[in-house]
Amino acid sequence: MATTGLPPDTAADVARVTESLAMITPRWNVRIMLALSGPPLRYSQIAGKLSWLQNGQLHPKLRALCDAGLVQRTEHTSRHVTYGHTDRGAALLPVLPLIVTWAEEHLEKTDRQLPAIEQIEDSLTLLTRRHAAALLWVLKSREEASGRALARIVMPGSDWTNIYPPLRQLVSDGLVDTDGTGQPYRLSEAGESLAPVFGALSAWSAGHPLAQAARHPIWGRADAVPAPKRWLSNQTRLPAPAAAPAPVRAGQTAWQGRDLFSHATPAHPKTALTAGGPRR
């Protein structure tokens, strides 16, 4: 995705986060990552935890997660192979509760209480739409911008009117607001509230501790101490430093990997949404 209208550090930041989302959004990937929480497992043990997967579906998913550097395959003998998280994969897990928290506050309520894993999958569907991350990044940094200005930054070299389909989708999803045709665009409350999620994904993808998310130059808190170095790293595949979990406030759920399957995952879980968003 070309974002040559952005400063180099910001363009690299957006590209890394987009790549990170692409690693975990494909169907079943988050569920497999959660199933691997704990000691390494044999293939049959993983399959037993994900019994709805048909024969032949699990192996390519595990291979893709291994290629992404999130899962490690260890061959003890020719007949004894186990799978477990890499350090990098384990460091990504604390980001998932942030997505759940955002979803529970901003996604439209349904007539049943959704498992947290479905909240994650629905949220990832929104965030991985084409150009979504770049558009949200620019609007966060500029507060508001016209469609033409956004096109120059996010889609340089393309017909500027091509910016409107992804913008209309973000408006429909409830992440972006506008007062009408020809008026500038700005983040909605739901879009602004993605700050902890994008900050954490950016920190993880750059190989920084998740504690540095609050210092992110765009998505960080205004009262946070600036990061001591540039928010840039090309080491997207190297192990990230382990991140200490955030302190739990009174009344706040202390999410753990197993809790993300709360409310009893159905035998045949649904596919992540293809449309919708905060309004589902």
Notes on the structure:
The chain has twelve helices and six strands. It has 280 residues and is mainly α. Strand 5 and strand 6 form a beta hairpin. 37% of the residues are buried. About 17% of the residues have low confidence.
What key phrases describe this protein's structure?
3-stranded antiparallel β-sheet; single chain; mainly alpha; 12 helices; 280 residues
Q: Write out the strand line-up for the largest beta sheet, numbering strands in chain order.
A: 1-3-2
- Tell me about the largest β-sheet: 3 strands, antiparallel
Oligomer: single chain
How many distinct helices?
12
Number of strands: 6
Q: Give the helix/strand class.
A: mainly alpha
Kindly state the percentage of residues in helix: 40-55%
What is the secondary structure topology, with strand pairs?
Elements (H helix, E strand, L loop, with lengths): L7 H17 L4 H7 L5 E2 H7 L8 H10 L3 E7 L2 E6 L1 H6 L2 H12 L9 H12 L4 H11 L1 E2 L1 H8 L9 H10 L2 E3 L6 E3 L1 H4 L2 H11 L75
Antiparallel strand pairs: 1-3, 2-3, 4-6, 5-6
Helix pairs in contact: 1-12, 6-7, 6-12
Gist of the model:
By secondary structure, the chain is mainly alpha-helical.
